[in-house]
Write a structure and sequence with these properties.
This protein has one domain. It is 61% helix and 5% strand. It contains eight helices and four strands; from the N terminus they run E-E-H-H-H-H-H-H-H-E-E-H. Strands 1-2 form a two-stranded antiparallel ribbon. The protein is globular and about 55 Å long.
Length: 261
């Protein structure tokens, strides 16, 4: 919708890049505040967040490049233009998860307790990031002529199909992630075991993503079978993985602070 926020001489500020940065900083800030309340080292939490989120951004970009390889093979310089749009969330998870486990083990952090601190932050950061997708036009929706809230992209710099009313799929996901964030904040007051918030986040997001995929129109994201996108397939796997982990962790009878170190 507004891929470029403003230009100042040779400097161009892309809305997508700015909102990704805002989401990153807000997520980091909220996690540090919660770590302080729970008596977790703020410095360790900052380092954990920096390395994990950096790995997530790298994984997201690499996955996007791989799913659009025919374009990037012909335009290799564009691979580094992350500020213009082009991240795949599940690609980020694939690299962020092992990075998080490695760092937590190295610093002696309780992995599931740390993950719970970060769960609401991931949700709110992702929600803001999807607003960046909307501005850039990436992750656009299917054509929706006659839909009252359909959005028509007209900016020449937009990555979406221009001149056609589309489902605002980016806003669907952003709104759902804001709700996910609020649910996790409420659940945090009643948390009964370490890892609960994180796996509820994964459970909720897998449902959100599978639903939003039904309205996506960018065919390049890949399909496992006709009508089933790659992201929907991953969502199904993540949904059942979250159910298994929630049941497994809930059976433990250790105090919260002693679980799954």
């Amino acid at each position: 919708m507004f891929p470029v926020l403003f230009k100042l001489g040779p400097l161009t500020i892309h809305t997508y890049g700015l909102l990704i940065a805002v989401g990153f900083l807000l997520a980091m800030g909220l996690a540090v505040l919660q770590a302080r309340k729970e008596g977790v080292s703020e410095d360790a939490m900052l380092d954990f967040g920096f390395y994990t989120l950096l790995a997530g951004l790298l994984g997201s970009r690499v996955f996007f490049i791989l799913t659009n390889w025919s374009y990037f093979r012909a335009h290799p310089v564009d691979m580094v233009k992350i500020w213009e749009g082009g991240l795949v969330f599940y690609g980020g998870v694939l690299l962020a998860a092992p990075t998080a486990f490695w760092f937590a083990k190295r610093k002696g952090l309780a992995i599931w307790r740390t993950a719970d601190v970060w769960a609401p932050s991931i949700a709110i950061g992702h929600a803001i990031g999807r607003l960046g997708c909307f501005c850039a036009g990436c992750c656009y929706g299917r054509p929706a002529p006659g839909l009252p809230w359909a959005v028509t992209f007209t900016d020449p710099g937009s990555l979406a199909i221009r001149g056609v009313p589309l489902h605002p799929s980016q806003l669907y996901e952003s709104g759902a992630e804001f709700i996910n964030f609020l649910l996790l904040i409420i659940l945090r007051r009643h948390r009964s075991f370490d890892g609960q918030l994180f796996w509820v986040y994964i459970l909720n997001y897998s449902v959100i993503r599978a639903g939003v995929e039904m309205f996506r129109g960018d065919e390049v994201r890949g399909f496992l079978a006709p009508g089933i996108s790659l992201s929907q397939g991953i969502s199904i796997l993540m949904f059942f993985s979250a159910l298994v982990m929630i049941m497994k962790l809930r059976k433990k009878d250790l105090p919260l602070s002693d679980r799954t170190r």
